[in-house]
Every structure is written in structure tokens, then in C-alpha cells.
Amino acid sequence: MPAPTVLTAETSAETSDVPQPSCRQTAAHALTIVRDGVITGEGPTTKGRIHFSRALDADDAAWCARILTASAVEHQPVSRAEAEALFEISDAGAERTDDGRFDDLLAKAIAHHAASESGLPVPPRTVALSPDTPIESWAPVKAVNIDTHVLEWIAGQMRGKRRVNHRLATMVAALLGVAVVPLAQLPAVMDLGMM
């Protein structure tokens, strides 16, 4: 039986079905609620607006940004569960009307996760995930200190997807270009044909 959803005082009455994150686990759960709204076009994240199933719009991207930058998680690195939920949202949103905001957020969140999992310092989420902050200003540009298992996980998440996030694919390809990965393993790490 799943644990009950934790709601905080910051949760508004109109969005009581979407928890205000109190930790990274509840943030990941809240992102799955956004994912469900993208898939079905219904639910607490779509209330009061027309939302088609399998569509990802600016409001969905804003929901994700609010969840990921909530004060309770602002100074924590993006978790694997949050990153996986973002990949699921990306997969669910076949139709995009968000002017690229979600793809930008996804790339930055994955870079934040990869850097932190590799033991590198990361800025607060409100800085790193801001649309006004260029990813190049803080994200690693060389894989010298990036854990290859993290790179393999990212490549696995991206492999075989019908929709490619070019910003994220470019970042991963640049990191793989300097990573110490035996040539025989490269096809298993990333399908270069997806770019």
C-alpha cells in the first residue's frame, strides 16, 4: 500500500491533489501527477483549462518547474526518481506547445542529477533550472569527473525514444566524447543515430 501523500501548508485548496514537495520523494510523486495529466488531459494539474491528452503545454512545464524548485528541495540535487519522472513526462507529451521550456528544464534537471551523482557541486535548483540561466554556466562540459554509470543511465533513458531532446542529446554526446569509455562499449552506452 503506498504511503499517504504529504501535504504542507503551502498547498493551495485548488491544487490539494498535487502535494507541495516536502522532500525529493514527494517532488517525484508530484511530477507523476503532472505526467498523468499530460497522458489523460485530466486531473488536478489540468483543472480550469482545456488540455488534450498526450499534450504538454506551458502550464505543464510551469507545474514541473514549481515542483522542482519548491523551497523544501531547492538546495538538494535532483534525484533519480525526479529525473525518471521527467523522462516519463517527456515521453507522454507527444504534442508540445510550451515553446521549448520543458525540454530546457529536462536537460538542466538531468545535468543537475548527473553532476551531483558524480560528486560534483551543483547550484541551487532555482538557479540551475531557471530559464534565465544558461546550462553552460554551471553544468559539466567534460566527463572527466562524471560517473560513467550515470552517463549510461541517461543514454538508456534516451535510447529508442520517438522524441529526442536535442539539448540533452548534445550534452550527453559532448560528455561521452571525452569520457573514458572503451570503443566496444560505446554502442551500448548511446545510440548515436538518435541525434
Describe this entry's structure for a reader.
This protein has 195 residues and is mainly α. It has one domain (13-194). 46% of the residues lie in helices and 3% in strands. The chain contains 8 helices and 2 strands; from the N terminus they run αβααβααααα. It has helices at residues 24-40, 58-68, 80-92, 101-117, 125-128, 148-158, 166-178, 186-189; strands spanning 55-57, 95-97. It has a two-stranded parallel ribbon with strand order 1-2. α4 (101-117) runs parallel beside α7 (166-178) and α6 (148-158) packs antiparallel against α7. The longest helix is centred in the N-terminal third of the chain and has 17 residues, at 24-40. The chain is globular and about 45 Å long.
Task: Compile the SSE list and pairings.
Elements: H1 24-40, E1 55-57, H2 58-68, H3 80-92, E2 95-97, H4 101-117, H5 125-128, H6 148-158, H7 166-178, H8 186-189
Parallel strand pairs: 1-2
Helix pairs in contact: 1-2, 1-3, 3-4, 4-7, 6-7
The gyration radius over C-alpha positions equals 17 Å
**Oligomerization status of the protein chains:** single chain
Based on secondary structure, the structural category is mainly alpha
Query: Number of folding domains?
Result: 1
- Helical run tally: 8
Largest sheet: 2 strands, parallel
What is the string of helix and strand elements? HEHHEHHHHH
Mean pLDDT: 81
| Strand order, largest beta sheet | 1-2
Shape: globular
Helix proportion of residues, in percent?
40-55%
